[in-house]
Amino acid sequence: MNITQSTTTLSNGVKMPWLGLGVFKVEEGSELVNAVKTAIQHGYRSVDTAAIYANESGVGQGIREGIQATGITREDLFITSKVWNSDLGYDSTLKAYEASLQKLGLEYLDLYLIHWPVQGKYKDAWRALETLYKEGRVKAIGVSNFQIHHLEDLLKDAEIKPMINQVEYHPMLTQKELHAYCKQQDIQLEAWSPLMQGQLLDNPVLQEIADNHRKSIAQIILRWDLQNEVITIPKSIKENRIVENASVFDFELTPAEMQQIDNLNQNRRVGPDPDNFDF
């Protein structure tokens, strides 16, 4: 199946692509603009950024150039951004949303997320997201880096359930309990850093599976995400990698291979621990 047709339906009925382009740590400039444009030209329809990445303007430029180059419309794309910790709060989150839209040059976002569960702040921010959603300013709302206890706490007061929880997720950090909880709550899990920032690309178990399928290790990991029903947003600025990362819809891992990959779990993070993050 081509990635342009491959979507999941979120709890509110909105369709979101299973695979998108992440732009974490890609600085503003022509490299970023070209990466976004190239991804769109190769069939990507989802781009994930955040206020703290300080690259929303370049992403917006890449989106405009991608639309121009392909003849698709804004409505064909799924654009995500996130509110940063220092802006959590009701009014400040609403302002942060407007600032992100302005930088991106867009009239709305498809998905807006609370970036980290800063204790004592995320509930006010969530009320702001609910307001944006009710006003039709954003198509879907969600959270990022929330553990089960954060979600339980949020759901006590939330009028609207998060549609997405974007978390660090890769074969060394499978987060099985969190995934099961999100499924039970109809919250779609999404993976950031799916390739563990490149740390898994010489793993012998993954190499053997990759050889079996004549695919790269990156493709095996991304396929594992998809078969686990986890949305994935690998980052790349190189055209060959952007194309390679999307070529994961023409093969399937066996249950035994899926289990082998699950067995690599060490509960190991490359990013901060949401419970011990110095905000």
Descriptive overview:
With 279 residues, this protein is an alpha/beta fold. It has a single domain (14-200, 225-251), classed as NADP-dependent oxidoreductase domain (TIM Barrel). The protein contains ten helices and ten strands. It has helices at residues 30-41, 56-70, 90-104, 122-134, 148-157, 176-184, 204-213, 217-227, 239-246, 255-262; strands spanning 7-9, 15-17, 21-22, 46-48, 78-83, 109-114, 138-144, 164-168, 188-192, 231-232. The strands form two sheets. Strands 3-4-5-6-7-8-9-10 form an eight-stranded parallel β-sheet. It has a two-stranded antiparallel sheet with strand order 1-2. Strand 6 (109-114), helix 4 (122-134) and strand 7 (138-144) form a beta-alpha-beta unit. Helix 1 runs parallel beside helix 2 (56-70), helix 2 (56-70) packs across helix 3 (90-104) and helix 3 (90-104) packs across helix 4.
Strand content range: 15-25%
**Low-pLDDT sequence parts:** none
CATH architecture: Alpha-Beta Barrel
What do we call the CATH homologous superfamily? NADP-dependent oxidoreductase domain
What characterizes the major β-sheet?
Answer: 8 strands, parallel
What is the H-and-E element order?
EEEHEHEHEHEHEHEHHEHH
**Structural class of the helices, strands and pairings?**
alpha/beta
